[in-house]
Amino acid sequence: MLDSDFSQRGVEDNALGRTREHVRRHNLSTILTTLHREGSLGRNVLTQRTGLNRSTISSLVTELEALGLVEEVPATGQTGAGRPTLVVGIRDSVVAFAVAIDIDSIIVSVVGLSGRVLKSVSRRTPDAPAARTAIVMARDIITDLRKDLPGGTRIAGVGVALPGQVSVSDGVVSEPAFLNWKQAPFAERLSDEVGLPVFVDNDARLGLMAEHDFGVGKPYSNIVYLVGHAVGIGGGVIEGGRPLRGARGFAGDLGHFRLTPPLTIPTPGFSGTLSASLQRDALLEALGETAQIDDLKLEGLLTSSTSARVRRAIETQVERLGIAIAGLINIFNPEAVLLAGFLGILLEVDRDHLEKVIAEHVLEPSWTHTQILRTEPGSDLLMIGTSELPLAPLLKDPSGFEFTRAVTLTAVEKSTS
Amino acid sequence: MLDSDFSQRGVEDNALGRTREHVRRHNLSTILTTLHREGSLGRNVLTQRTGLNRSTISSLVTELEALGLVEEVPATGQTGAGRPTLVVGIRDSVVAFAVAIDIDSIIVSVVGLSGRVLKSVSRRTPDAPAARTAIVMARDIITDLRKDLPGGTRIAGVGVALPGQVSVSDGVVSEPAFLNWKQAPFAERLSDEVGLPVFVDNDARLGLMAEHDFGVGKPYSNIVYLVGHAVGIGGGVIEGGRPLRGARGFAGDLGHFRLTPPLTIPTPGFSGTLSASLQRDALLEALGETAQIDDLKLEGLLTSSTSARVRRAIETQVERLGIAIAGLINIFNPEAVLLAGFLGILLEVDRDHLEKVIAEHVLEPSWTHTQILRTEPGSDLLMIGTSELPLAPLLKDPSGFEFTRAVTLTAVEKSTS
DNA sequence: TATATAAGTTGTCATACACAACAAAAACAT
DNA sequence: ATGTTTTTGTTGTGTATGACAACTTATATA
């Protein structure tokens, strides 16, 4: 299923008519994208998968090889009769930088075109990292990492995952640092600093897209995704293989999904939403933990605890989560609901109760075939998903993509979903 | 914007590779679809719109003409210098039947490939129309209408709009008649009766798609749609130019969007949802009306009434509607919210209050550019949208489409989103 | 009536993929 | 060992489709 869509609005070419060149581009893109998703594949598999003629595959692979994007390995421990197939694999001579900015840390990864994380650097940030600080730190790390890249490595660009939508006035990203920095200037400034195209997107959406392409969401085209952070709930939706974006990229932020009616008195941050109702801190409090602990430890404590207070806290959270999921299933009719962060822990700890709550509040037909799944904890998927942003244009048009060396950016590159 | 998608899941061809034939098909489809949406266009406009060469347009139009799908009119009162262009228009020698089944009536329209309703027949049904009854009535009307068609007219198929999702256990379609008839058998039976391919879909989604392609939603690619029926609220979402469908076609049914937390005691029909909270009957009751009246009359009464009770009823409904819309905007970030049925009346009657309520509960960035619009009351759009279902395959592959004369159906035709 | 302008038609060319024949490389049978 | 079978890659030819350019048609304007 090559139905994913990492491309940002406005990138798609608007010419309705198609010409021969489009065919070539499409097929080139199809092959490279397939390899990117699935890893090395034999030529025979490619012909089978694409339905193209062997000679065509030959021509396309040759072209990709000439572009320095793939390489052919004579053979691997193959089996069966007949001439052994040539295995086509993606070369990591093309990389992208993935930057994940969080409230207390910044991570920068070098991700190869193959979708593998080649190197990662994590650094703690001051408590309320001003955007300026984040940009400088990102620039410095990138500059360092750049030095260590093997000679001849080409860089497609930089992807940045930001928690919550910048310029959102609710609690998800309430640091004034982010409020003062709308997305566009953020991308532009960082781009000016590193001299590479920079793409910015919401971290939950990027995480979801990575889950969809490489993680537990791979088999599904319709996914509802909820991730529980230290503060706030992020979310996203894949519909028909494509992420919900909405008019200006704010769609799918399910942390704002409402559980209870809003108070008539306007309050800062919207009461009654998922973000407001589901809180990791409530679990910590029940456990009597005052320090910040990571998800792994939290899971251990929750599983081993026998305290009634803890059980009650879990029950409350599961109850609310179940009602929210039921509501989301009713609206989105997904094949799978993916839970990440501490929401994944809740699923692990009390799946039965969660499913019971969902079943009580869901419409039968939508629910029957829906899976509730937990994402793999602590994986590199967010970084991989983030790297997809700058890689997307290359995957879409392998022969036409130009590796930017110039600092100047086009409007499209600056624009952020 | 040719970004609409009336095709049902499973119809899309799955071959990843593209060949020359795909180009031809795509271009043929593009031209026919453009004409279908926009009406007659000059060849010059087509070249401009598609970016294709004049000679290519010439070839494609000639082929479409040979297929009997379009005709070229020498000229119309044109202006300006230069040789006058040939105007290409769609011939209504190809038609589709649109069937709208409601609780108390059944409407069948003949819709031309041009998107014009050529003829309509409306008939009242017994109060709780058994599916069997509806099918027989539809068949009889279709048979009648068929006789009056001009010689040589070809029929693409039959589209059926059903209120709510069949096999949904909640209040939208609570008649046992529909509960006993799952969608697939419905389409199959009617198809057996009329010997034509039959496609079934939710009426709200069809209405929305028609609004998106031909109505007030035309300028937008991200739309939230709410329609207020006599009982229950229907809804739909257009995201990135395509309708939300979900895994099994149940997505976007916003009548189930939750306003207040569900009761812990399971009740038949889900309490606290839009359908449960927004009720046309509440307005009738406040007006002291006991008989059923149509939307036009209702609007008149509401506008002219000075009763405090009526005002309060309106206020309550507007309040709830506003909160719901705000929640939907937060999740879907649409460019436009379309209100139909009595919800459109509410907008007309008290737009200021509605927008005020929305503004109170919405996230600023998503709201700033969002339009709240009312659909044109009493238009033919539902019928047109419904006719798109059988027309879609023809529009998608003009030269490959085969007009079914045989009664046998393929699995795809039987399958319903 | 001549000229400019806009638009449709026709013929040639380039190209992308299909197809068929051939070559290569390995497994299997004798 | 050697030939046969099987699978795969390569090469050359064919076909179709859209680009492009030259030509023709048709109208407005001077």
How would you describe this structure to a colleague?
The structure is a homodimer of 417-residue chains. Chain A is α/β, with parallel strands linked by helices. Chain A is built from 16 helices and 13 strands. In chain A, the strands form 3 sheets. The first copy, chain A, has a 5-stranded mixed β-sheet with strand order 6-5-4-7-8, with helices on both faces. In chain A, strand 9 and strand 10 form a beta hairpin. In chain A, helix 9 packs antiparallel against helix 11, helix 11 packs across helix 12 and helix 11 crosses helix 13. The longest helix of chain A is centred in the last third of the chain and has 25 residues. Chain A is globular and about 65 Å long. The two termini of chain A are 23 Å apart. Chain A binds a DNA duplex (30 and 30 nucleotides) through helix 1, helix 2 and helix 3.
